[in-house]
Amino acid sequence: MSYDAFLLLSFGGPEGPDDVMPFLENVTRGRGVPRERLLAVAEHYRHFGGVSPINEQNRALLAAVEPALDLPVYWGNRNWHPFLADTLRRMRDDGVRRAIGLATSAYSSYSACRQYWEDIDRARAEVGEGAPEVDKIRHFHDHPGFVEPFVDGVKAVWTPGARLVFTAHSIPTSMDESSGPEGHRYTAQLRETAGLVAAGAGVAEWDLVWQSRSGPPHVPWLEPDINDHLEALAAGGVSAVVAAPIGFVSDHLEVIWDLDNEAAETAEKLGLRWDRVPTPGTDPRFVRMIAELVAERTDGAPRRRCGTLPVWDACQPGCCPAPVRKRT
Ligand SMILES: CC1=C(CCC(=O)O)c2cc3nc(cc4[nH]c(cc5[nH]c(cc1n2)c(C)c5CCC(=O)O)c(CCC(=O)O)c4C)C(CCC(=O)O)=C3C
Ligand SMILES: [Fe+2]
Question: For residue 221, what are the domain limits?
Answer without folding.
Answer: 144-276
